[in-house]
């Protein structure tokens, strides 16, 4: 029941979808339009996210520490 209550429909450009299914597209989006990723992550986290949370979500799974 807990998981059903947290269900949310997301698009194919959603951060979690990109991370799990299209990591190459995630890398391209981060390089080309990083703001779209940040906006998506803000929406998923109660419309706000700080730099520490953002770094925790992106490094090392989506980008290297040196790219951060």
Structure characterization notes:
By secondary structure, the protein is mostly helical. Helix content is 59%, strand content 0%. The chain contains 5 helices and no strands. The protein has helices at residues 2-5, 15-21, 23-32, 34-44, 51-58. Helix 2 (15-21) packs across helix 3 (23-32) and helix 3 (23-32) crosses helix 4. The radius of gyration is 12 Å and the shape is globular. The termini are far apart. The mean pLDDT is 88.
Percent strand equals: under 5%
* Cα distance spanning the termini: 37 Å
Structural class: mainly alpha
* Structural Rg: 12 Å
Number of strands: 0
- Unreliable stretches (pLDDT < 50, length at least 5) are none
The residue-averaged pLDDT reads: 88
Please work out how many helical segments DSSP would assign. Answer: 5
Shape: globular
Elements, N to C (H/E): HHHHH
Which secondary structure elements does this structure contain, and how are they paired or packed?
Blueprint: H1 2-5, H2 15-21, H3 23-32, H4 34-44, H5 51-58
């Amino acid at each position: 029941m807990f998981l059903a209550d947290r269900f949310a429909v997301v698009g194919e450009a959603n951060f979690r979808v990109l991370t799990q299914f299209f990591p190459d597209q995630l890398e391209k989006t981060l390089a080309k339009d990083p703001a779209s990723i940040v906006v998506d992550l803000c929406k998923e986290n109660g419309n706000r996210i700080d730099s520490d949370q953002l770094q925790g979500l992106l490094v090392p799974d989506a980008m290297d520490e040196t790219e951060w």
